[in-house]
Amino acid sequence: MQKNALERVSVVFALFDRNGDGHLQAEDFEIMADDVVAAAPRSSDGAKDAMRSAFERYWSTLVTELDTDRDGSITFEEFADCVLEPERFHDTVGEFAEALAALGDPDGDGLVERPVFLALMTAIGFEQDAIHALFDAFGPSESDQITVSTWVAGIKDYYSPTKTGIPGDQLVGGRA
Ligand SMILES: [Ca+2]
Ligand SMILES: [Ca+2]
Q1: Distance of CA 123 to the CA centre of its chain
Q2: Distance 71 CA to ligand 2 centre (A)
Q3: pTM score above 0.90
């Protein structure tokens, strides 16, 4: 069962390696934060700041908790511990999930429209078909919206080694 969570985080690792050198560094998270915030033009400054803070915390947790060889960059083997030892990463993923989902709800009604979801997930780097498959797996309403809390739970599940057969699996495989 752990294999699935490792496969899921391997997708994230590849997308977060913004400068493409095979490791995660502070620079990758700065680029990622800029890209994601730029995809949320209708969101408040507060929501954008929360997203930037969540990315900064994500990085600082990686470098303080998971940088086993203390070289200031994170290999995939080091990153995999976020799944293998989830208690070290739990609160960081929670803050990240809530900041991202809040960014997807600029009008604050607790619902995320498909085009906003698509824009944010595209900014992170996921493929369009996979993003639509994920949104569909979340069970959108007739007005084609999902709840913020559904998305938050989906992100937390994505990192959980005990979760299999979840909506987030739609993001694994099938990428060109
Ligand atoms: Ca990198
Ligand atoms: Ca390292």
Answers
A1: 11
A2: 5
A3: yes
Q: Which two tokens stand for residue 108?
A: 């604050």
DSSP bridge partners of 112? 146
Phi and psi based region of residue 61 (left: phi greater than 0; alpha: psi -120 to 50; beta: remaining): alpha
Task: Count the neighbouring beta carbons within 10 Å of the beta carbon of residue 39.
Answer: 18
Model confidence pLDDT, tens digit, residues 61-103 = 999 999 999 999 999 999 998 887 888 888 999 999 999 999 9
pLDDT at 42 over 80: yes
Report CA(18)–ligand 1 centroid distance (Å).
Answer: 6
Is 13 exposed, middle or buried (CB count within 10 Å of its CB: 0-12, 13-18, 19+)? buried
Domain 2-167 listed as CATH 1.10.238.10 = yes
